[in-house]
TrEMBL record:
UniProt record similarity statement: Belongs to the SINA (Seven in absentia) family.
Swiss-Prot/TrEMBL GO biological process terms: protein ubiquitination
Pathway the protein takes part in: Protein modification; protein ubiquitination
Molecular function GO terms recorded: ubiquitin protein ligase activity; zinc ion binding
Enzyme Commission number, as recorded: 2.3.2.27
Keyword annotations from UniProtKB, A to Z: Metal-binding, Transferase, Ubl conjugation pathway, Zinc, Zinc-finger
The protein's name: RING-type E3 ubiquitin transferase
Annotated source species: Oryza sativa subsp. japonica
All residue ranges annotated as the SIAH-type domain in the record: 140-198
Length: 321
């Protein structure tokens, strides 16, 4: 049995498109605040072993790190350049069926179907045939996620690595402030907002109500919890009805905590009239302008009669059992 280690240990965490990742371009300019990228590993024909007692003693390392640092008993340990597992035309991960010309130049099925029987390297007519041996190699390789050192312990088929990393819970989140572009992790937001957006964030304590005054034209406000979790109070203008308010948590990593929130709006003309919502906080990695549709507080335009809306908000935190 052979253990393959993908030789990309010194790259930044992938934050671009799948094609950019496969080209191994340099990371974004703001990547200096991110942790170094985990060493990816790929194992041929073997599922990852469960972490043992040594992993517990080393700070609960996941199986991805155990496989990356250990040897396969009775097998052969080798390194492989991950670029050789990518199509030389589209730079996407090779996926069976795979075809090659008579000189051994390989293309993925999607690109092969567009070549019109002319090799992209030989630049002449070619007779393409299936490369069954390479298909078996590609299918046997299982790769650790690039975010293994931040908690992702999944081993996935190398051909599915791009799709997994784009949706991986442990990938960095994107700063919601317009034109910022910073990508970070829970535990690093305090430093980023302190240095870059100190006037754009409001700190709060879980379980203690606080008051916010939001302009009706502002799409969201940023709240920072005492444990560095980042929340957005979203303001969705639902013309002609009113403003829909909801709270989401911008987070990545282990979901060891869950959150709920309560929003209350009071009429300025008749303080006895109040609107209230209590709901669970929705989790997201990036604010894309899409608002939750299941739970929100709808404040009619006529309720406040002002360009500002005053809300009382409380956010609760509880551990996942």
């Amino acid at each position: 049995m052979a253990k393959f280690t993908l030789d990309d240990a010194d790259d930044d965490p992938p934050v671009a498109t799948a094609r950019d990742k496969r080209k191994r371009d340099d990371g974004p300019a703001d990547a200096e605040d991110e942790p170094p990228r985990a060493r990816g590993s790929a194992v041929a024909g073997r599922e990852p072993a469960a972490p043992g007692a040594e992993a517990e003693a080393a700070g609960r390392r996941g199986p991805a790190e155990e496989m990356a640092n250990g040897e396969v008993e009775g097998g052969l340990s080798v390194q492989i350049d991950p670029d050789v597992l990518d199509c030389s035309i589209c730079f996407e991960s090779l996926r069976p069926p795979l075809y090659q010309c008579q000189n051994g130049h390989v293309a993925c099925f999607s690109c092969w179907s567009k070549l019109s029987n002319k090799c992209h390297i030989c630049s002449r007519d070619a007779k393409f045939a299936r490369n069954i041996a390479l298909e078996k190699i590609v299918e046997s390789i299982k790769s650790s996620c690039s975010y293994a050192k931040w908690g992702c312990c999944k081993f996935i088929n190398y051909a599915q690595r791009d799709a997994h990393e784009e949706a991986c819970l442990f990938a960095p989140s994107v700063c919601p402030i317009s034109n910022c572009g910073y990508r970070g992790f829970t535990g690093r937001w305090s430093g980023h907002f302190l240095t870059s957006h100190s006037s754009d964030v409001m700190r709060f304590i879980y379980g203690q109500p606080f008051e916010v005054n939001i302009e009706v034209s502002v799409p969201f406000l940023v709240f920072l919890g005492e444990d560095d979790h980042l929340f957005l109070l979203q303001n969705n203008n639902l013309t002609p009805f009113g403003h829909a308010f909801s709270v989401v948590c911008l987070r990545s990593g282990n979901l060891n905590w869950m959150f709920s929130y309560q929003i209350e709006a009071t009429s300025r003309k008749k303080p006895e009239n109040r609107l209230q919502l209590k709901a669970s906080v929705t989790n997201t990695r990036q604010w894309t302008g899409i608002y939750p549709s299941e739970a929100f507080l709808l404040v009619p335009f006529d309720f406040c009669h002002s360009s500002n809306i005053v809300l009382n908000i409380s956010i609760e935190r509880y551990a996942v059992v």
